Amino acid sequence: MKTTFAIAAALGMALTTGTAFAKDVEVRYDDLDLNSVSGQVELEKRMDDAAREACRYDEPRIGSRLRSAESVKCYKAASIKAKSQMAQVIDNVRRGG
Q: Structural domain of residue 28, as residue ranges?
C-alpha cells in the first residue's frame, strides 16, 4: 500500500495555474488509521499544511501583510485537489487497499 504522496504531484492543478513557486511536499499517512475520524482529520490537516507550504501561502510579502494573488490562487486550487486526493486515499483504505 502506498503510504505517502507528493502534494504537488497530487495537486497538479495548482502547478498549472502559472504559479512559479509551487513545489513538491511529501505527505505521509502510514501512521494514521484512515478508518477513524481522527485519522482522517489529521490527514486533512497534513494536506492543508502541505498545500500552504507548496504554494508559500503563509510567507509574508515584502511591504505588505496581504498574501500574493498567485499564492492565494495556488492554495485554493491545491486545496480543492487535495480534498479529492484525500477522498481517493480514504476510499482505497476502506476497500482494503
A: 4-94
Cell 497530487 locates to: 10
Cα–Cα nearest to 27, from 12, 47, 41, 8:
47
Tell me: the pLDDT tens digits for 39-62?
999 999 999 998 888 888 888 777
Q: Is the pTM of this model over 0.85?
A: no
What's the CA gap between 82 and 93, in Å, rounded?
16
Higher pLDDT, 9 or 75: 75
- What's the total number of domains in the chain? 1
